[in-house]
């Protein structure tokens, strides 16, 4: 009796949240080389991807403040909201302990 061979394909998922000392930030979610969602967390109204509004409800629940919701006294919650959205997409909660105890491998490439 022959056994059927099962093959699994794991499509790569990339989720990135970037924030530098100058306040420049970005969020990227890509699946299998397709940009699913890209935006600046402080300005979630301006987003692009395929399709850019797929996670709109989740973005609201994560704490992003859209132009129609922002007041003069609103606290900027874009960084915590970006981490919450990344957790939703990956299932991984980033904690201070996880960041302190993890070994990171970094590299650089020359720009021509």
Please tell me about this protein's structure.
The model has no long low-confidence stretch (mean pLDDT 87). This protein has helices spanning 56-62, 78-90, 96-101; strands at 13-19, 25-31, 34-40, 43-48. The protein has three helices and four strands; from the N terminus they run ββββααα. The radius of gyration is 18 Å and the shape is globular. A four-stranded antiparallel beta sheet has the order 1-2-3-4, covered by helices on one side. With 112 residues, it is an alpha+beta fold.
Briefly summarize what is shown.
The chain has three helices and four strands, in the order E-E-E-E-H-H-H.
Topology:
Layout: E1 13-19, E2 25-31, E3 34-40, E4 43-48, H1 56-62, H2 78-90, H3 96-101
Antiparallel strand pairs: 1-2, 2-3, 3-4
Q: How much helicity do the residues have?
A: 10-25%
Name the average pLDDT: 87
Which structural category fits the helices and strands? alpha+beta
Number of helices: 3
Tell me, what's the shape? globular
Topology order in helix (H) and strand (E) letters: EEEEHHH
Given as residue ranges, the uncertain stretches (5+ residues, pLDDT < 50) are: none
Number of strands: 4
* Neighbour order of strands in the largest sheet: 1-2-3-4
Q: Indicate the proportion of strand residues.
A: 15-25%
Biggest pleated-sheet summary: 4 strands, antiparallel
Q: What's the Cα radius of gyration?
A: 18 Å
* Terminal Cα span: 58 Å
């Amino acid at each position: 009796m022959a056994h059927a061979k099962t093959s699994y394909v794991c499509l790569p998922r990339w989720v990135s949240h970037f924030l530098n000392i100058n306040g420049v930030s970005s969020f990227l979610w890509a699946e299998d080389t397709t940009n699913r969602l890209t935006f600046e967390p402080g300005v979630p109204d301006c987003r692009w991807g395929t399709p850019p509004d797929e996670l709109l409800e989740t973005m609201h629940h994560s704490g992003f403040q859209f132009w129609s919701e922002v007041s003069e006294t609103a606290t900027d919650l874009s960084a915590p909201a970006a981490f919450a959205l990344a957790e939703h997409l990956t299932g991984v909660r980033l904690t201070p302990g996880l960041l302190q105890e993890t070994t990171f491998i970094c590299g650089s490439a020359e720009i021509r």
